[in-house]
Design brief:
This protein is of the alpha/beta class and 328 residues long. It contains nine helices and 14 strands. The strands form four sheets. It has a six-stranded mixed β-sheet, sandwiched between helices. Helix 5 runs parallel beside helix 6. The longest helix is centred in the first third of the chain and has 16 residues.
């Protein structure tokens, strides 16, 4: 059964931008434009209400505080306004990050949430804005299962699997084939479901590269980060002959920092035991993100640590599939 009352939550982004002296900039007043376009197109759509997170922003300025504001607005729309589906309009630069983060921040939410946006502003010649927006509405009207998804260029994609791969085309978002094999969580505990209050978390992402220095890594880990997402080579390898670098990672883990590894390869997955170099990295306390994307691994760390979980508990749930991010 499709949605009966839809919350349209507008955060800004290209879809609602208008030209300013400095170039395209976020703008308010999108509800009136949306209602006018709906009247012109005479499309059968679900009843909807409009809410706006102020100020509207370019998604390049998106941060985890905005994720928490989205969660609060979504819960209010469902619990107070009686909505049974949500369409969140968002800029494309960080759309995949927000889709992934919300996938974990809204675990157990009984209604569907779809994120969408556009590569060109609504009203621009040849824009994809109305097609994406009304396409997402029609998908929700037809019926979408609970969970977070992204609608773009006629496709509905898993929120915790999607990445932005292009900056100059309407098919900018895709779910790349990656090995997804992992143990599914039997159930989602109350400690990490959508009703759990989250606090901001200090996280960092660092790609390994030839010549990375232990001193560089030490400065980052000594800055107060609670979790580090390390982008490793291939199946989870790195400079395992650098004893100082391994010692820096081990010391950070011993003082409670959660260390997780993803693969730098677009189709890659982490499997530490394939190479000795991977096994040596794992011995420092690094845990595998399997085939998760950067966006999914970062959002998952944020949701787990933001819920107040300790290191061991966060590592436990990070290693399990919670919403389809690790397992098919």
């Amino acid at each position: 059964m499709g949605c009966q009352k839809l919350l349209v939550l507008y955060t800004g982004g290209t879809i609602g931008m208008q030209m300013s002296a400095a170039g395209l900039a976020p703008a308010s007043g999108f509800e009136a434009r949306l209602r006018a376009q709906q009247a012109l197109q005479a499309q059968a759509l679900p009843e909807w209400i409009f809410r706006e997170l102020l100020p509207p922003i370019d998604s390049a300025n998106m941060n985890p505080h905005n994720w928490l504001a989205m969660v609060a607005a979504i819960r209010a729309g469902i619990e107070q306004d009686g909505c049974d589906a949500v369409l969140l309009l968002h800029g494309t630069d960080t759309l995949a990050y927000s889709a992934a983060a919300l996938s974990f921040l809204l675990l157990g939410l009984p209604v569907p949430v779809i994120l969408s946006g556009s590569m060109l502003p609504a009203g621009s010649p040849g824009s994809d804005a109305w097609g994406n927006l009304f396409g997402a509405m029609q998908a929700l009207q037809a019926g979408v299962a609970p969970g977070v998804q992204l609608y773009f260029n006629g496709e509905l994609m898993h929120g915790a699997r999607v990445s932005k791969l292009r900056s100059d085309a309407f098919d900018a978002f895709q779910v790349l084939p990656r090995q997804r094999q992992g143990q599914r969580a039997v159930s989602i505990p109350a400690s990490i479901d959508y009703r759990q209050v989250r606090q901001p978390v200090n996280l960092a992402v660092l790609p390994l590269f030839p010549g990375i220095q232990a001193a560089q890594l030490r400065v980052l880990l000594d800055s107060g980060v609670q979790g580090l997402l390390l982008e490793c080579y291939g199946s989870g390898t790195g400079p395992a002959d650098d004893a100082e670098l391994l010692a820096v990672l081990k010391a950070a883990h011993q003082r409670g920092v959660v260390l997780a590894a993803i693969s730098q390869c677009p189709h890659g997955h982490v499997e530490f035991g394939v190479y000795a170099a991977g096994s040596q990295l794992a011995s420092t306390g690094l845990i595998s993100a399997g085939g998760m994307t950067r966006e999914a691994a970062l959002g998952k760390l944020f949701a787990l640590l933001g819920a107040g979980l300790g290191q061991a508990e966060a590592e436990h749930w990070f290693g399990l599939d919670l919403c389809g991010e690790r397992a098919d």
